[in-house]
Structures are given as structure tokens and as C-alpha cells.
Amino acid sequence: MKLYLAAAALGVASAFQNPFSSPVRANIALDAYKVAVVGGGPSGACAAEIFAQEPNIETIMFERKFDNAKPCGGAIPLCMIGEFDLPETVVDRKVRKMKMISPSDVEVDIGDTLKADEYIGMCRREILDGYLRDRAVEFGAKPINALVTAIDVPSDHKVNKDSQYNIHYQEFTPGSSVGTPKDMKVDLIVGADGANSRVAKAMDAGEYNFAIAFQERIKISEEKMEFYEEMAEMYVGDDVSPDFYGWVFPKYDHVGVGTGTVVNRPAIKQYQKAIRDRAGSKIEGGKIIKVEAHPIPEHPRPRRVQGRIALVGDAAGYVTKCSGEGIYFAAKSGRMAAEAIVKLMEGGSRLPSQEEIEATYIKDYDRAYGPTYAVLDILQKVFYSNNGAREAFVELCKSKYVQQVTFDSYLYKKVQGNNPLDDLKLLGETIGCLIKGYSIAKPDQEFSNPVESLKRI
Predict the structure, then answer these.
(1) What pTM, to 2 d.p., does this model score?
(2) Based on CB atoms within 10 Å of each CB, which residue in 94, 158, 313, 405 is the most buried?
(3) Segments of the chain with pLDDT less than 50
């Protein structure tokens, strides 16, 4: 509301075209460097917020849809609430219990190791993203409601700091189904525009393999919703996914029911039907209020920095294996990239080189979170590969030590597990669970998609 009032008081005509319109800070120098953040999700908004606080940098934030409800499971770790100063109003549900369900429908409840004030936050992306964008605008970022269609990258952009990038975009025009074509020259670009990043294509960042995630938001009765008050469910089995898991996550007044896969993307709707069937009576009679699907990167892009263009979030490929988590890493990478670049710009007096950005932002990010990605990659390969391993995975979840390490690692974003005796005991338990799991598991269904499996974005 205060953005509307400020715009009206200043007589800003564009305030009626853009709900986030706000005048750029008056103290920005006329010769300030211009930074464009393409994408207004967690990674873009958190980057824009940092840039906007530097008086000698003009910050532009492009977002194609300000009311976008991005398809997403919506889970955020507890550490993100404090680290990013988020109000609890962005959290729909506080999950303190999880039910793990094996291919043979063995159920294991976990969550007893959580402290009274610990939880996994469940959010709707339209609420979380909107809050982060609003805050970036309040700090002085100029939002543009537009779709970036192309970026002209000068051939000498890696060596000539006077060269500029030319961004072509279609700006939203009220009452029109087509945007108004415009362009803008900028000095530096942060690509935060998701898995199908146009920034990544423009800078030749290279391709990556990807999963398809499919989710239905289902409105169930209040009585059924009580079961999911603090509960989330995770289903494994080749019927719901040959290489991932299916989920039922509680939201504000509904549940998100979904699944994902890399190796058999053409069958995603078949797997979605299976997760609905597995949830059974708990969501029976529910009304599907929204259907969502989106790609999830499987690994970082080969090149995340080119010249004065840097990628963050999904555009860079920062989604973990095994859990499929991306929100925290999107926000964190956006903030880390912006903080590193602002520091290199020395009060807006210079532009950083590619080598400098790689030696700070990329090196620091990989050092901080590389171990997390590596561990989760191994866990996915070990426990999501077949039904025997999935049975073992659920069986292992009975261990209080496994629960403690898992929740601590997720909630606080640090790889846990440094008790040698317990780790040795866990190794023995893992071998035992794998032997048992393989002995009772049903065979996995065979499938083949040689053409689709080679597709990259």
C-alpha cells in the first residue's frame, strides 16, 4: 500500500501500470553504473536488494509476471527465516512431522528429534516472492514488468569495460495482450530467470540435464486438512517416480501433491496419477484448484559467469539432488553474487572482471555448498535407483541418528554427521537395510525413451 501512496504523492504516472512502481532513489549519481537483474524470484529479488542499497549503482529488476505463482513444493529451511529476515506471515504451515512411505506402503514417522521451535516452513511462492520483490523495491530497485526476449552481448565484453549489454524486452501494457517492445543498455547483468534462462542462452552458459516436476494444488475438506496441520508426506516407489519421490505438502488452505523425474519425463502424468492414488482417502474428494509443471536443473551449468554476466538460482543450476530443494539456494546465491560484485565495484567506481567474479562469488558458493550437493547426489544414486534401495531408505529413516542428521543438515544447511561411532554403526545398518530391502522389493517396471532422455536445456 505504501508503494501506491508514494507513487501517487509523487505523481508518478507509471504507478497505474505497475503495482511495484517506485521512483529510483534520488541520490543515484548521473553516471552510475547500471545493473540489470533479470528475474524477480528469490534469487533475483535477493540480488536486487543488495545492489539497490549501493547509492552509486542503478538497479533494474525485470520480472515478466508480478503475480506469478511459480510451480514449487514450497519448502524452506528454518535458517532462511532468520538469515533473510522473513516474517512468519510468508509461512503457510510449520511442518514438524513427516511420514515416509515405502514402495510396499511401509510407513515411518519422523520428526521426534526436532526441538519445539524447529520446523520446515511451507510457503506459496506468490507470497514469498512478492515479499522479497517488495523489499528490493523499497530499497530502491526499479521494477519493470516485462519479458526479456534477447540480449546483445558485445564480442569484446570480457576485455572492454566500456562495452554495454543491450537488453531487448516486451514491457507489459495494461489492456493489451502484447507488450511494448523496448531496449536498455546496462553495464552488468545477473541472470535469475529460471531453468529456461534467456540470460544463460545469451551468454553461452552451456546446457544441463533437467527433471520435470508436476504438482496439483488440491483443496480438501477441513477435516482432512487437519491431518496435514504439521505433517508432510514423502512417497517412494517406481510407480510414483523411477528416480525421485512423490509428495503431499500442506499449504495455506490446500495441499500440494506432486512428483518429478529426470529419466522418464514423458510419463510424468502417469506418475502424478500414481501419487494421487497412493495418497488415497487422505485427499479423496478434493478439488484440483491449480495444475503446475516446471523443469528443475540437475547440476550447475558449465559456465556460470561470462564477462560481466553472472547466473544465480535455477538459471545457474543450484537445485539439490535427492531433495530437489532450490528456494534457499536461489536466495543465497543471489545474495552472495550481489555482495561479491558490489564489493568488487568499490562504491560503484569500477566494473569487475569475469576472473574477479569467479574468484569471489563462484569460489565462495562452491566452497560453502559443494559438499551438500555432492552428498545429496550420492544419496539419490544409492537410494532412488530401484525399489530395493527405496525400501532400505525408508527402513533407515527409523533410526533416530538418521533423523537427527537429516533434519539438522536440512534446517541449517550444513552437512552433519561427525560422530565416528554412530557413523560406523549407520554403515552397518545401511548394509543390513539394503539386504532386507532387496529381498522384499517388487521389480521395477521397465521403460525406454532414448530420444527424450538426451534432451537438455
Answers:
(1) 0.90
(2) 313
(3) 1-26
